[in-house]
Amino acid sequence: MVTICVDAMGGDSGYEVVLEGIAEALEEDSQLSVLVAGPDNIIAPFCDSHERAMPLVCTEVIEMGEHPATAVRSKKESTIVRGCVSVRHGDADGFFSAGSTGAILVAASLNVGRIKGVKRPALATAIPGATGRKTVMLDMGANADVSNDAIVQFAHMGRAYSKVALGVGAPNVALLSNGEEESKGSEMALDYHRSLKEASDGWFVGNAEGTDLLAGRYDVIVCDGYTGNVAVKTIEGTAKFIVGRVKDATAASKRSAAGALLLKPALKSVAAELSGDEYGGAVLLGLKAPVIIGHGATSALAVKNGALVCARAVRENLVGKIADAVQVAE
Amino acid sequence: MVTICVDAMGGDSGYEVVLEGIAEALEEDSQLSVLVAGPDNIIAPFCDSHERAMPLVCTEVIEMGEHPATAVRSKKESTIVRGCVSVRHGDADGFFSAGSTGAILVAASLNVGRIKGVKRPALATAIPGATGRKTVMLDMGANADVSNDAIVQFAHMGRAYSKVALGVGAPNVALLSNGEEESKGSEMALDYHRSLKEASDGWFVGNAEGTDLLAGRYDVIVCDGYTGNVAVKTIEGTAKFIVGRVKDATAASKRSAAGALLLKPALKSVAAELSGDEYGGAVLLGLKAPVIIGHGATSALAVKNGALVCARAVRENLVGKIADAVQVAE
């Protein structure tokens, strides 16, 4: 039996959606139990009516807009802090929340702790690819500034995650840059390139461009968290722009409206692919237990998948594999 | 009468497409004449049969894959080098090419020359926005590393371009970063933020995120060329991914196929908006004459619009306005 803690108050969609996702995860995985973090009046009825759901009563909630470090320091009874503490105490094997990314980062770094030898935890996600091959992208924003040593660790951690989460045998790694040629890049990217090349025994395959992110060409793409955050949010914004334009067209013409209606299932599935609902969110790599961060505008499906991905990471010993990868590389 | 030079050999779509675009531009603008750069056998028949088209015979072509600096140095008779030289000699008032961005950057910097006081030319483009408001984005990749002084100049140049090309009265400027809060950013972005804030008399409005690029929230968004290039190519890749997924769906289901057929005009118009065909390409700001770079996979429409934007920049004295903006700011 694997126990994970799920933050019932995370995300902008309301706790009902999160609880529905937990219920679905429990139904799908009979070897899973969930520690549900939230106010007593919300979680008690849920835990009473669901097997393998246990309450973790919390009296505070960190809101999306709060300053992460300040909120984590002052709200010790919040679902995010208590959830991370439950992992440290061994009451749970992993943590899932669709709450504030910044607050989860701070609380998890403080309370779950880093794997020995890991310089910086990184935020990774498996983004879809045109070819069907998914690409693990990191860092998506945990670290705005990243040293050469840390970028090499990101490559190792990304490879370990690609193996565990996607079942890739020997994942390759590319560096996000402003051109494929080795000579392309900012001073920072050129340094990263040299460090990755030096560290690689064949897995580093050179520079990737922005057009490669959703092309399914690489198993892992690494970059600093500033660039990764810009790229991930640009994907999100572009998808939103296109969907908006299609909606405008359907409002302007009956022909387009009919087309959009017929295409709706296809458009919805692309939107879901890009929203992260399918893969359950982003994972913080480098910590002593799996911590998964769901998209703020979450859905029951995203919560279910996030919880199941978290359980899978526990069962397949993601943390042990990352520890091995980092240690072997040192 | 404005004379611009157009590279007949630029782009991956063949010279026929470029010549068609030139013909359309000449037809639309009776006060425009075009110096057509290309091999004699291609351009002579075109110039013979079109009024206000004059030949600039070139015996070499720089291919898309060539190393920019090497190609510009060795191919003095290429359309790109000769085109830039024609501007320096005053035979043309501006230059348009859909050829290698890198080679045009090098050739234009060498031959057209920088405006006095401009530290680095920057590649700018007006990207569409959900609200209908367009956003001038720069640098899209001319400079992988950008100093604090240069980013402030980019803001001034972007504002001048927004006024001339989009008619915005008092353009505001945001900095691309990994969060809206002032505290967010890499060390580089935090430095940029401070410099922009210091230089601004009200036009700097803070950080923008990747989701803002196509949202039509800001008049100008500045960043270094490494990040800008990643962002622009991520937009391109995301659009391609979504179009591909819609195609997959139409192949898999008759319902989706019917929907896609009905929605085709709408989808095509979004694709055109994002491809840059409508705004004619990217413009190199900071040079002594307008130099416009079209998308490699160009269309006749893109060439036509690129030529017309170039002519408009000449007529509205974009260069003088940038010179003023940069000088006033010093």
Could you list some keywords that capture this structure?
homodimer; 330 residues; alpha/beta; eleven-stranded mixed sheet; 11 helices; 49% helix; globular
Describe this structure in words.
- The structure is a homodimer of 330-residue chains.
- Chain A is α/β, with parallel strands linked by helices.
- Chain A is 49% helix and 15% strand.
- Chain A contains 11 helices and 11 strands.
- Chain A has an 11-stranded mixed β-sheet with strand order 3-2-1-4-11-10-5-6-9-7-8, with helices on both faces.
- In chain A, helix 3 (68-74) packs across helix 5 and helix 6 crosses helix 7 (187-199).
- The first copy, chain A, starts with a strand and ends with a helix.
- The mean pLDDT of chain A is 92.
- Chains A and B meet through helix 7, helix 8 and helix 9 of A and helix 7, helix 8 and helix 9 of B.
Structure summary:
The structure is a homodimer of 330-residue chains. With 330 residues, chain A is of the alpha/beta class.
